[in-house]
Design brief:
Number of helices: 2
Structural class: mainly beta
Distance between the termini: 18 Å
Strand order of the largest sheet: 23-24-25-28-27
Strand content: over 45%
Oligomer: single chain
Largest sheet: 5 strands, mixed, barrel
Helix content: under 10%
């Protein structure tokens, strides 16, 4: 079985920073399984991978105020009578549920039964503008000078149909430099974007950038976001505090491209990162850790969060946090866990090539593409995630937009009981005699290939006739593990194919 390790750099404990890894044994990959592990406990107390922090006193059993912030993929709400909705600061209709992958803030109340009554929903896009360049091999785009990284679960709406990178990555082939798109997601302080949704834009006129201010030159009236230099000398400034535009502030900028990587702003708005809540408000956040301020203090998408006892989070980790707001404006987190995309592909074997420029490891001929949000295994060195030629690694993630690319959400030192092979979830492979196709890469099925733990008789001819059907139970999905014949890593041949069911089916 595969072993997953989590890096942590901020801990809800008294004392200094800690950085450690904690091993957990997840269930096998499956279409419905999010490869998410509760953030490791920091401190003593045994081999626990789930920590319950005692939350502060909560609201009464009646409907309680709630703030939700982040990816809206599972939001369903009822609009209140005075409901307000905005998109990028302008009044506009918001679909209910919102488009999968959009990032928004919801304020309202939640009934004891869980129903959300929304007073307001505000959607904020990161970018709306032309594509500068496209590198699908490395799952990256450049839009308005900012690098946009794609994840397995990044939602796509480019051809008139909804999909994700790992299910509909070929849709990205339709994009061309100059096409105008809208990008939702999270952005680091340095201007790197982790996309949750790409869609063709319906906007006209000014382009949009929503990100954190980098270097500010108040004399020249310029601010840099990533490689984009923004001239705000003729812009209307809106909502700024007394000190004016400063580095680190979250900005919404509208304007036009004056030249390559040079943006003439028409309007620059200050976006507050203070929590809009009162005492005892329930807060739910799904986003990117953009800063680690102290052993207990982090920022998620620029918003301050105090970690409760026993909770940890690291820079650039995608996390989901729940907590309670207090009268001082803090959010004290009661739960926190890594929020990776659904994992559909796993690869375990020796590293045969390393591309340090793009952080790509070749394993069994697959290009394992890592990113800022990939979790690694090397204890205190986990932040670097560096592996060497010949080392045994275990990666999990999803198919990339190009054949043979796996976008890694986890890349770990292989456990001693890992076999060299490929794991794939139901629905994420195909067959074409004599091959099974995983992430666009063929694995040869021969007469010598054996079949293990299948429900009834299975042989090569039957297997290659069609993908293995399920047993009619929609809950009990399966995975397949292709053990690879030693020495065939460059052109994989299956020694065996193992059928793996959920343990609780």
């Amino acid at each position: 079985m595969r072993q997953v390790y989590l890096k942590t750099t901020a801990c809800g404990t008294s004392g200094a920073h800690r950085s450690r890894s904690h091993a957990v044994k997840p269930a096998a990959l499956a279409t419905g399984l999010i490869v998410v592990a509760t953030l490791a406990a920091c401190g003593t107390g045994g081999d626990t991978n789930s920590v319950d922090a005692s939350p502060p006193p909560g609201p009464p059993a009646a409907a309680s105020p709630v703030v939700m912030l982040g990816d809206t993929r599972d939001w369903v709400f009822t609009p209140a009578s005075d409901f307000s909705e905005t998109v990028d600061g302008s009044t506009a209709a918001v679909s209910n549920p919102p488009n999968a992958g959009d990032v928004a803030e919801l304020q309202g109340v939640q009934s004891p039964g869980g129903e959300l009554l929304a007073d307001s929903v505000s959607i904020e896009h990161i970018l709306d503008g032309p594509v500068d360049s496209i590198d699908l091999q490395h799952a990256q785009l450049v839009v308005l000078g900012l690098t946009v990284t794609l994840r397995p679960g990044t939602h796509l709406y480019l051809t008139g149909e909804e999909g994700t990178v790992q299910s509909s990555g070929s849709d990205l082939e339709q994009l061309r430099p100059g096409d105008r798109i809208t990008v939702s997601g999270q952005v680091t302080l340095s201007g790197q974007v982790q996309a949750t949704r790409l869609a063709r834009s319906s906007e006209e006129g000014n382009y949009l950038v929503t990100a954190f201010a980098g270097t500010v030159d108040s004399n020249a009236h310029t601010v840099r976001i990533g490689s984009l230099l923004i001239d705000y000398s003729e812009a209307r400034l809106r909502g700024f505090p007394g000190e004016g535009l400063q580095a680190g502030q979250r900005l919404r900028v509208r304007g036009v491209l004056a030249a390559t990587d040079n943006f003439a702003a028409a309007e620059v708005s200050y976006l507050s990162t203070e929590w809009p809540h009162a005492d005892h408000t329930q807060v739910s956040i799904r986003g990117l850790v953009t800063a680690v301020k102290s052993p207990t203090g982090i920022e998620i998408d620029g918003h301050a969060v105090e970690l409760g006892s026993g909770l940890c989070a690291g820079l650039n980790e995608l996390v989901s946090v729940t907590g309670i707001g207090d009268s001082s404006g803090r959010v004290v987190a009661a739960t926190a866990y890594l929020d990776a995309d659904v994992a559909s592909v796993g690869v375990s074997g020796p590293v045969t090539a390393v591309d340090s420029l793009f952080a790509v490891y070749t394993v069994l001929g697959f290009s394992v593409q890592t990113s800022l949000t990939t979790s690694y295994s090397y204890d205190a060195c986990a932040a670097t995630g560096q592996f060497q030629m010949g080392e045994m690694v275990s990666a999990s993630g999803g198919a990339g937009p190009k054949a043979g690319v796996v976008l890694a959400t986890q890349l770990n030192e292989a456990a001693s009981d890992d076999s060299t092979g490929v794991t794939v979830a139901q629905g994420y492979y195909s067959v074409a005699d004599p091959y099974a196709i995983v992430a666009g890469r063929p694995i040869e099925i021969t007469d010598a290939t054996t079949f293990v733990r299948f429900m009834g008789h299975m042989d090569r001819q039957t297997f290659l006739a069609a993908p293995v059907p399920d047993d009619g139970d929609p809950v009990c999905n399966y995975n397949l593990f292709f053990k690879i014949v030693p020495g065939t890593e460059s052109a994989p041949v299956a020694q065996s194919v193992e059928f793996i069911r959920y343990a609780d089916c």
